[in-house]
Amino acid sequence: MTESPIRVVLVDDHQVLREGLRVLLDEEGDIQVVAEAGSAEEALEQVLAHDPDIVVMDLGLPDKSGLEAIKEIRAKDYPVRIIVLSMHSGRELVMQALQAGSDGYVPKSSAHTDLLQAIRTVHQGKRFLHPDAATAVVDELLERQAEAQMLESLSERESEVLRLTAMGYTSREVGEQLSLSPKTVDTYRQRAMEKLDLKHRSEVIQFALKAGLLDEINHA
């Protein structure tokens, strides 16, 4: 008994690119392009109409971002696998795509060599990351690990002062909350910044955001 082909919906606002991808995929006996879409709304309509196995999703769509489209598809609980096909493979974008619910990530520059493998891989229930995307993910994880280790070097008081400083409190306001003098608060802040190699308040805020310190306060 012959297995049914992998049913694919192509989502990209450039018709010429979609046509090229359709030719590439339709040459494969185990893959069938069942629909195309040039916008996020159209993508949702085609997913509902055709019940595909795979959606190949561009992120730069005219009505809303591909990230939003991925989130909407996931919110509707459609049983479909999603591969992002993007011009960019920067760390932030790759992480956002994975967090939104994508199962694979392929740069457009590698579509002709990697998209077929990506489709077959995610159809088997696995993830597929192009080496550039995989490197971005590893770099992000390593940076988070380094930040966690840096936080462990702070005393409890230094960590508390750093959090409140990042929240925008003055030394006097921090001191009132922690029953410390403003001068003592300044000392703790300076020690924390030296340990973390931070020079300016903007760097304190950026580090606190990335390290999740502000999340801890918001959920306290």
Question: How does this structure look, described?
Answer:
This protein is an alpha/beta fold and 220 residues long. The protein folds into two domains: 6-137, Rossmann fold, CATH 3.40.50; 153-218, Arc Repressor Mutant, subunit A (Orthogonal Bundle). The chain contains eleven helices and six strands. Strands 2-1-3-4-5-6 form a six-stranded parallel beta sheet, sandwiched between helices. It starts with 5 loop residues before the first strand and ends with a helix.
What's the structural blueprint in terms of helices and strands?
Layout: E1 6-11, H1 15-26, E2 31-37, H2 40-50, E3 54-57, H3 66-75, E4 81-86, H4 91-100, E5 104-107, H5 111-123, E6 128-129, H6 131-152, H7 156-166, H8 171-178, H9 182-196, H10 201-211, H11 213-218
Parallel strand pairs: 1-2, 1-3, 3-4, 4-5, 5-6
Helix pairs in contact: 2-3, 4-6, 7-9, 7-10, 8-9
